[in-house]
Each structure stands twice: as C-alpha cells, then as structure tokens.
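4.2 Preliminary Data

To establish feasibility before requesting continued support, the project team ran the inverse folding procedure on a target of 257 residues. The structure was first converted into the token representation described in Section 3, and no sequence information of any kind was made available to the design step. The complete token record follows.
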C-alpha cells in the first residue's frame, strides 16, 4: 500500500474513532439523565462507527482482505482482536432483509422491544437473546440489536486500543496538522476551565452583619488657614528736632531809691 493510500485510510479510521467517542458521550449523557430513548439511540450510534472500523480492518470480502492486512500491519494489530467480529463488521449489510428474517424467526414468541434496565426483571429472565430486538441491559452493559448482544464496554476498550495506534501513525503522516490540532485542543481546554470557575457569590445581609464593625474614621481637621503675616509698621520718620524757644533775658529789677 503506497503512502498516499495509507494516509487516506488512516484519516478515515481516525474519523470513525472520533465518531465512536462522540457516540459514547451521548450515551453517558443519556444514562445520567435516565433518558431511555437516548440510551438506545446512542447505543445504536456506537455500533455504526464500530462496524465501519471492523469492516475496514477485517474485511469479510476476499478481494478486500489485502487492504485489511496492509492496514493491520501499519497499525501493528494482532489478528485476535475484539473488533475482529464478523457479526459486527456485517451489522449494517442487508438490514431490511435481516429484519424480515428476525420477524419470521420469532413468530409466535414473546419478544422485547426498546427496553433499558435489568433484563432479569422481564419474564423472570427467561427471554432468550434471539427474541430481543433492541434493548440495553444496565447490569451487563450489553446492547442487543436484532437478537445479537454487543458488550459496549468491550467495544469501548477495543476502539480505545485502535485509536491510540491510528493516532500514532496519523502524527507521522500529518505532523503539522497534528500539532495544530493539539494547540487548538489545549486552547479550548483552557477556555473551558476558565469558564468553569464559579463567580464570587454576592454577600448576604447576614454575612455583611457578621463582619466586625469598622471604626469610623474621624475626618481630619482642616488646617487653619494661615493668617497673613502682620505687616510691619512703617518706619517712623525721625521726629523733627524742635528748636528751643529763645527766652528773652530777664532785665534786672530796678533798684529802689
């Protein structure tokens, strides 16, 4: 298999692994919400990419076996693998005919449709797998479709193993693209972490009252306005010297005769 052809198949295998991961996320959400229809829908959606992976890596047609061998060699996959299941690989082939065959095979028997829970609670647990059209057994983690049971935990583990191998080859073939995707995921994770931080809760009146009373600060007195410096008294002019008044010389008194 040439490098270009390998790159195309590896890209598709990686997409199917991502689709399976998205389906399992839906499944877990539905289980947490106890939404029965959602559990059945997500379970069936898990089998869709799982079947694609099985048929690409372990094709049942003779003319496609060479392709499967080349892909398994590139991914270093052993022949004995949980995804190497012919029933899984051919799950979506001739679906209408398989439905007709199931209806004919279960005619006159008690059958189970769209059930989520412990199957032991139905018919005292005596209902054979072949009479279960679609159901998920919460105790065994087995999803039944048209009389065949698929262990979803085993499928998750198997695809996790394949996904790790596919991503390793993907990084070799598309190093720049893988680096850009890593940076984008890291950025998205950081933004999600930031958004998850709880906002500070507003303080309640009780919390406010519990705070120690703060001393009221006495406003500082304003500094008194400075009085303008007293004006120096104007320098006194030196007093004018008074000229002493001249006194007339007293005449001697006249002598008496």
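Position-by-position output of the design step:
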């Amino acid at each position: 298999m040439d490098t270009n052809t390998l790159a195309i198949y590896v890209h598709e295998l990686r997409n199917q692994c991502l689709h399976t991961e998205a389906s399992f996320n839906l499944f877990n959400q539905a289980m947490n919400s106890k939404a029965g229809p959602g559990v059945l829908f997500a379970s069936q959606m898990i089998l869709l990419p799982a079947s694609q992976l099985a048929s690409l890596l372990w094709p049942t047609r003779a003319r496609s076996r060479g392709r499967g061998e080349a892909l398994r060699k590139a991914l270093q996959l052993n022949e004995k693998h949980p995804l190497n299941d012919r029933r899984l690989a051919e799950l979506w082939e001739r679906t209408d005919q398989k439905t007709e065959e199931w209806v004919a095979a279960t005619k006159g028997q008690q059958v189970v449709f769209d059930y989520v829970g412990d199957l032991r609670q139905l018919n005292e647990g005596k209902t054979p797998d072949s009479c279960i059209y679609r159901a998920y057994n919460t105790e065994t983690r087995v999803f039944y479709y048209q009389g065949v049971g698929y262990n979803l935990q085993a499928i998750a583990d198997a695809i996790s193993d394949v996904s790790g191998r596919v991503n390793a080859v993907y990084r070799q073939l598309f190093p720049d693209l893988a680096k850009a995707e890593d940076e984008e995921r890291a950025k998205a994770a950081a933004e999600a972490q930031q958004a998850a931080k709880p906002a500070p809760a507003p303080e309640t009146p009780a919390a406010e009252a519990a705070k120690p009373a703060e001393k009221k600060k006495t406003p500082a007195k304003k500094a008194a306005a400075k009085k303008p410096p007293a004006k120096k008294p104007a320098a006194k002019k030196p007093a004018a010297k008074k000229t002493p008044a001249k006194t007339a010389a007293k005449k001697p008194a006249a002598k008496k005769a």
